Amino acid sequence: MKNEGMYDCIGIGIGPYNLSLAALMDERTDLKVRFFDKTPEFQWHPGMLIDLTDLQVPFIADLVTFANPQSRYSYLNYLHNHNRLYKFFFFHKFEMPRQEYNDYARWVVKQLPHCQFHSEVVGVKDNGDHYEVEVYNRRTDEREVYQAKHVVMGTGSKPLIPDDMGGHPSEDVHHTSRYLFHKETTMDSPSITIIGSGQSAAEVFYDLLKEQKEHPYKLSWLTRSEGILQLESSKLGQEFFAPDYVDYFHSLSFEKRLKALDTLDQLRNGIDMDTLNNIYNILYNHSVSESAPDIVIQPLTEVNQISKQGDHYALSCHQWQEEKDFTYTSGKIILATGYVPNIPPWFHDAFGDRIVWEDEKRFKVTRDYKLVFKDEEDRDHHFYTVTNLEHSHGAGATNLGLAVDRNIAIINDICGEEVYKVQRHTIFSQFSMDEYPS
Ligand SMILES: Cc1cc2nc3c(=O)[nH]c(=O)nc-3n(C[C@H](O)[C@H](O)[C@H](O)COP(=O)(O)OP(=O)(O)OC[C@H]3O[C@@H](n4cnc5c(N)ncnc54)[C@H](O)[C@@H]3O)c2cc1C
């Protein structure tokens, strides 16, 4: 058992959100902090680090720039350190390759000794005026206990696998989050089917389309959606991902927030225009040849079940507009069925009865990312969360562009002063009548 005195803050998970917090705390505060991640090292969605895919936000949404453009942990400083600044200059593009984002984040991790990997947080206990954080160290096989005034949960998301689609060998049926780990064996199959139509589905379809001339499988893409549709990316539309909109969204009632999420669906779901153009480009070019690779793209189609049949899989499908059922067969299946917030298993036992919930799955969160404890207005040790925020902070909850603004709010709240400047009135749109001059 380890006990190292009182930490000001412990971070659970080291994905981009908490890594940004760790970097910003390191640069401007004297806080005693520690961050834990259960994986052996930082890897950003490694199963989806596909060649030639880009980050879907401009590089300014790195881990620190929105708080401090002069930070030594900025992407531009990473480029400068790696003698790549001129290459990026001539690259002439705002979106860095996804593999480079991973490399940049790993470069930041290396400079932050208080980030500890191989370490799973297996319990958090409220001790009245601080938290006790229990960590299972996978390297030493030991349990460690840490005391912290504040805790920040940044445990990210986990793959969503519908009930009737799971339970098959993962080399045959797997979620896109595992795509690259199985890619080689997937391509040996005579037929591959992708289910779903978000960005991940499109990236996997594109990647397999590029390989199809060398590996002549039949490639199918089935989705329940009305079409293979583009993500809304207009400039004014993107202003919904600014902190000003988060202020507005958070001030609405729970019911109005849920409705707003529905109406802003095109901002959250859909495929980036470049990816769609790349896909069409290959489809068109391949179609010139009479022996064009075998492709099926079918929207309006719900897949309800996957079952093993001999050496292949049978997909029970329903074309919902025509109301027709049919069975589709495939050798390998890739589920692009999305993600859900990853709430650690100990969370409900530790806090379920003590905090305020907006419904059975969604806890109430203050504007500055604190869980709300029942009857405890004078609480001075806080449990912050940057996970499961869509219902409280809007469509940008999982957008890297807002991570730094979130962390500014958390740091300023913990320190009780404006360590980093809060930026507001930053965009052209306004949302609330309260903003109009009388
Ligand atoms: C494939 C993919 C691509 C994306 N691309 C973009 C993009 O281009 N632009 C954008 O704005 N957003 C993107 N997103 C959405 C979002 O920005 C990312 O998911 C981002 O990684 C979220 O960061 P995070 O820190 O919340 O979580 P994660 O990156 O999921 O990290 C959470 C970490 O917590 C650790 N952890 C979990 N539980 C514990 C525990 N009990 N103890 C210790 N550690 C634990 C996990 O090991 C993990 O490392 C993408 C999402 C996916 C899935």
Keywords:
438 residues; alpha/beta; FAD/NAD(P)-binding domain; seven-stranded mixed β-sheet; five-stranded parallel β-sheet; globular; binds flavin-adenine dinucleotide
Report on the architecture of this protein:
It is a single chain. The chain folds into two domains: 6-156 and 342-435, FAD/NAD(P)-binding domain (3-Layer(bba) Sandwich); 159-231 and 269-339, FAD/NAD(P)-binding domain (3-Layer(bba) Sandwich). The mean pLDDT is 96. With 438 residues, it is an alpha/beta fold. The termini are far apart. It is globular and about 70 Å long. It has helices at residues 16-28, 75-81, 85-91, 98-110, 179-186, 199-211, 235-238, 243-251, 254-263, 265-268, 273-286, 347-351, 390-393, 403-415; strands spanning 6-12, 33-36, 115-116, 119-126, 131-137, 142-153, 157-159, 173-175, 191-195, 218-222, 295-298, 301-309, 312-319, 324-330, 332-335, 339-341, 383-385. Strands 1, 2, 3, 4, 5, 6 and 17 form a seven-stranded mixed β-sheet that branches. Strands 8-15-9-10-11 form a five-stranded parallel β-sheet, with helices on one face. Bound molecules: flavin-adenine dinucleotide (FAD). Flavin-adenine dinucleotide is lined by residues 12-18, 36-39, 44-45, 48, 55-57, 120-121, 154-157, 200, 339, 342, 344, 386-387, 398-401.
